[in-house]
Design a protein that fits this description.
2 helices; single chain; 3-stranded mixed beta sheet; 3 strands; alpha+beta
Length: 89
């Protein structure tokens, strides 16, 4: 049986991945994993992202704000935990 996600969850996942890829290209995010997608009872996207230790706090805050904007726009949860790390594993 294949799990079908609501369209807003799929769109949220696309937007979150695009944000993380852009942040990775800029050198802010070292690596990430989006691995939790749900439709019911709490639709949303979750994952883990490692950012470069010593990165400007404003850049990390801007990424968190962008996640909140996605939540508000699509009415879904975005729970990506941002963790500082020295370098890629």
């Amino acid at each position: 049986m294949t799990l079908t996600l609501p369209p807003q969850v799929e769109e949220a996942a696309r937007r979150v991945q695009a944000l993380l890829e852009e942040a990775k290209a800029r050198g802010l995010i070292l690596e990430y994993r989006l691995d939790r997608f749900s439709g019911e009872p709490f639709p949303g996207v979750g994952g883990l992202a490692f950012y470069r230790k010593g990165a400007p706090e404003e850049a990390v805050d801007a990424l968190e704000e962008a996640f909140l904007d996605i939540e508000d726009a699509l009415d879904v949860g975005v729970a990506v935990i941002l963790v500082p790390r020295e370098r890629e594993a």
